[in-house]
Design a protein that fits this description.
6-stranded parallel beta sheet; 16 helices; alpha/beta; 8-stranded mixed beta sheet; about 450 residues; Rossmann fold
């Protein structure tokens, strides 16, 4: 039986881990069906007490006692990374956590595999434990770009894609998002009756103007990953291309597409398009109302769109917590459109399926190298073709067919591609010819299991 330790900064049933936590919750039941694995889980960077001692304690989880879950208490590296993106030296230099983790591993009796789903919340030097346990295989899944970018997504100041060409840009990036460690710890103290919402974080920048620290972050991560990781898992081919372009060893990187439960629903793909070129095209945007996701680019495009195109489209927005300014801009753009609908997100997949049931084309206008947008998978699984930017892994879902790809951030190119689809309804049908089969969680778990069982 293989003993596997999974690491992610948020607990299994924590509230803050987003898509990765959701993914792991779907994965674990399938791995547990197999008798080959004994699963453990570790989180870090979220729990603190009123001592300075760093220690690991066992906690309950939704899978207890089948999966034993633990957390690092009082870790000097905060999780997630955005909590202290200007406090990198601690991440690079701390050795105390490594010693605590070594004792934990020894007490458990060792592991066959340690699978990191992030290093956020841990210091880099924990990877040196590979020297102590050479027979333990170290895996890392790239759900974001944290080892390349300490604010995880190669997205500069919430405005543009970053290519890591000047470390001064790192120093000036997101300076406002950094929490004083003492106050962060106080905020997370487990004291009954503590009113956390009344605690104000102090913004401090201990690494300000230290350009070397950003170079060290980039170079040391690359050195440690190439040396200590037995396998690095990219969730899309584009993710692998980005990693290799920055010096990560190609021979250590496998592309394993993430499975999703929505793929298992087997929604029937549309084999025939009934729309004519005279009928309005129904566009839908599903996702967060953020710049990196291309939400504001989409609004910009609607505002810039010639009337001969805009008056032929209906637009549906499915997004939560849209700002008043964005809503005002959408309402203003509505005057140019055939129709506009705004949904405050969706409750569940049944609700999303209902919203998408009459949509012709999904818009996935990501502005960063979004590893593999879940919304792209969801829309294709529910029978909606997508028009996506050339960044990230979304276009791999349909073989990167150029008819459905536009240059990220290029409004003219977006409008051009949209106009071509408007005038040629057959393109909506042709989209499906190059769609790759979506990966179910069962298939994904089987692929991972094979990887875990390799010697």
């Amino acid at each position: 039986m293989k003993k596997i330790l999974f690491y992610y900064w948020d607990p299994i049933d924590g509230p803050a881990g987003g898509g990765v936590t959701a993914y792991l919750k779907e994965l674990f039941p399938l791995l547990l069906k197999r008798e080959e694995f004994e699963i453990y889980y570790l989180s870090s960077g979220r729990k603190y007490d009123n001592t300075d001692a760093i220690y690991i304690r066992e906690i309950k989880n939704i899978y207890s006692p089948t999966i034993k879950s633990y957390e690092v208490v009082n870790c000097p590296v905060l999780g997630p990374a955005k909590q202290s993106i200007k406090n990198i030296r601690i991440y690079l230099e701390d050795v105390k956590v490594k010693a605590v983790l070594k004792k934990f591993i020894d007490d458990i009796g060792g592991f066959d595999i340690i699978h990191f789903h992030s290093l956020e919340g841990l210091p880099l030097k924990v990877l040196e434990l590979k020297d102590e346990y050479p027979n333990t295989r170290f895996f890392y899944s790239f759900h974001n770009y944290y080892p390349l970018c300490n604010q995880v997504n190669l997205w500069k100041n919430d405005s543009e894609k970053c290519n890591i060409t000047d470390y001064r840009e790192c120093d000036n990036c997101y300076a406002r998002e950094n929490y004083d460690l003492a106050l962060y710890r106080f905020k997370h103290l487990e004291i009954p009756g503590l009113k956390q919402k009344n605690i104000k974080e102090s913004i401090k920048n201990p690494d300000r103007d230290d350009l070397a620290v950003y170079k060290d972050f980039f170079e040391l991560n690359k050195k440690y990953f190439n040396k200590y990781m037995d396998k690095m898992i990219a969730v899309s081919q584009r993710t692998k291309e980005v990693l290799v372009s920055h010096g990560y060893l190609e021979q250590k990187i496998d592309v394993i597409y993430v499975g999703t439960d929505v793929a298992e629903r087997g929604a029937a793909m549309r084999s025939n398009c009934s729309r004519t070129s005279e009928e309005p095209l129904q566009l839908v945007y599903v996702g967060y109302p953020r710049r990196d996701k291309g939400f504001y680019f989409f609004i910009d495009s609607l505002e810039a769109m010639p009337k001969e195109i805009s008056q032929r489209i209906k637009v549906t927005i499915v997004s939560r917590n849209i700002s008043e300014d964005a809503v005002d801009r959408l309402k203003s753009a509505e005057k140019k459109l055939e129709c506009l609908e705004i949904h405050n997100g969706f409750k569940d997949y049944e609700d999303l399926q209902q919203i998408l049931s009459n949509q012709d084309l999904g818009i996935v206008p990501v502005m960063w190298e979004d590893n593999l947008p879940r919304v792209a998978i969801e829309q294709i699984a529910m029978g909606v073709p997508i028009l996506t930017s050339n960044l990230g892994g979304a276009s791999e879902l349909f073989g990167r067919n150029p008819n459905y790809v536009f240059e990220a951030g290029n409004i003219d190119d977006f409008i051009k591609k949209l106009g071509e689809i408007l005038d040629n309804p057959d393109l909506l049908d042709e989209f499906w010819k190059n769609v790759r089969p979506l990966i179910t969680m069962e298939e994904h778990a089987k692929k991972l299991s094979s990887l875990y069982m390799e010697k």
